Give the backbone structure.
Amino acid sequence: MDVSVKNLDPLNAVLTVKIKNEDYQETYESSLKNYKKQMQLPGFRKGHVPTSIIKKKYGPSILAEEIDKILNKSIYDHISNEKINILGNPLPIEDKKVEIDWKNPGDFEFAYELGIAPEFKLEFPGRSKFTMYQPKIDDSLIEKQISDLSKRYGKLISVDKAGEGDMIFANFKELDENGDVVVEGFDQSSTISLEFVKDKKVKKKLISSKVNDQFKIDPKLISRGDADMSAMLGIDKVRAAQYNREVLMKVTEIKTLQPANIDVGLFDKLYGPGEVKNSDEFRSRVVEDLNKMFVADIDRVFKKEVSTTLIKKLKLKLPDNFLKKWILSSNKEATEDQVEKEYEMYANNLKWQLIENYIIKDEKIKLTNEELISYTKELITNQYVQYNMMIPEEEELKKAAENVLKNKDEGRKIYDMLYASKVMEFLKNNLKITNKFISHEDFIKKSTEAIQ
């Protein structure tokens, strides 16, 4: 067997595998014997079907399977031994002129396209200066957070007249083209949150409405898309998408949110009995929680700036045509138009991944089992906190973390997340960084842009 690689340019190569008859003959014959032991056909006892029949009926598929095993092993052994840094996976070159006769096997030759990762060098700290944007935790943001917490633990109370952010409980009846109620039509009770009504005329009409008021109204103007309208009217999504008439809306009840009092009762619900005793302590905790809440967003904005700058500075080139073909081959649902449209974002993500891998290798960043367990426990704990659930005892939490890491896909995600966290820590300690505090609104805008 012979494996060779021919470089077409620094980013593209062709890998050729030549397989001779003697490379597969022994394993092929062994597989035929195994099939013979298990095979049972009409007129023959189990294990006594003639080899000639098995070879004629199943020989090509058995041989194809053996060749495939040899190919995969030889390809990845060669790539590993020669330390070829490939992107994606080797892609078979389909030569329509070459046809393999699986019934009369001889020597085989297979060729594959390879996409090669670009070579580059990073220097730290370097000349580039970076800005770490952080939101100003000012009085207005603190007051907004306190107000949101008060509303979250508030209660709905009935009122006589609808206000700006109130909830209207209503009954909806189907109308025909003439505006009359359809006797056999839908008759559904549901709710409308006025804060989500975007149409100004409709919103103005509903504000100040009272119980038993009736309106003929376009349901599309008081719902958030077909799914929401479907639930509101009690009809399926297909019909909701096609519905083009008004409905009769009758107000049955109006409720407003009464925020919770900002006192010890609220403090105990948020932090546990006795943990926060007065308004000053509560305010300090709110500031502390806000700072914690923005840590991930601050890192994401910083990472976006660093990745954009380094990618631009390094001018990394990729085997673009190969990667587009590989994406299409590995994702059967993808179309060429989609790949073209999304390729730039994919390429930038891949370039950043190469930069991260460079840092991990160059700085000899390692993960210990203790770090993985601890990090996974933290992720699980955050989920319990998010859903207001009781956090398990230490031993149970450790077992849960170990079970998550045993899952191949979940384990891989956590490995990647922890490595990314360590790379971020390295960057913060080695780059020239200036902290800049900006308004909450401007920070949210930057954070949103960093996700895209």
User: Anything to note?
Assistant: The two ends are 48 Å apart (CA to CA).
